[in-house]
Amino acid sequence: xxxxxxxxxxxxxxxxxxxxxxxxxxxxxxxxxxxAYDRPRVLKKLKETLSxxxxxxxxxxxxxxxxxxxxxxxxxxxxESLLVRLSKVADLKDCLIIDTGAxxxxxxxxxxxxxxxxxxxxxxxxxxxxxxxxxxxxxxxNLFYNHAWYLDEDVKLNYHNQIxxxxxxxxxxxxxxxxxxxxxxxxxxxxxxxxxxISTILGAQINPQL
Length: 210
Description:
single chain, alpha/beta, six-stranded parallel sheet, three-stranded mixed sheet, 7 helices, 17% strand
């Protein structure tokens, strides 16, 4: 199998998930650089407190230039806005773009209406891991260890981008799960209601009128 060189990875939205991804990627020997792009105040705080080595870049154009992998780990609407901007960058070629949002249908539908530079593809994904506290200051390695990482089964990546994806998921030590975005969102919708259902059932044990 032909090797694919990865020299630059850009993380747009450097919060808890972005920070955890960076920590896992930086484990062991590596010859790539990780660039962080976010709001100025986040980057300022990141520069002051960061305990591991990444490059901080306030310019999106510079942050994504010649990137092999771009990870959108900002809030959903921000990810969608960033994806539109990335589709307009003519020299962003042969790049794998993924997102980490919990809702997949809106950004997947948006991606279908966009045209990217040659060899660049977008794959909706969702790592099933998190913490009760947000922010890169709470990031830790191994957050994704043995956790499902949902991948859109309807997107067919080219050879080079598939190799990049396989490499990244392996670095996270996550379990890749291919699924349609519609089924994913249906499952997440039901899961989000589970705590409320459990609390209602427990409450009914105390007060049958519930």
